[in-house]
Amino acid sequence: MQQLLLGVAVLACPIGMGLMMWMMMRGGQNKGADDASEQQQLRQLREEINALKADRVERQGS
Fold first, then answer.
1. pLDDT-derived band of residue 61, with 50, 70 and 90 as boundaries?
2. Domain boundaries in the chain?
3. Which residue pairs from 41-48 have beta carbons closer than 8 angstroms and sit at least 24 positions apart in sequence?
4. How many angstroms from the chain centroid is the CA of residue 56?
């Protein structure tokens, strides 16, 4: 019984690390959808920045 517990204790770390690595790799599969969303948000922010710059130039010219 004591040897069984020792064996479980010795294997707990590598099995846990392997499980964590597997879970992290699975989480990266949905990244494509996130990239598209981030690209759209980035495009919107750039458009907003350009609109604000144009407004600032217009105010300074007046």
1. confident
2. 2-61
3. none
4. 35
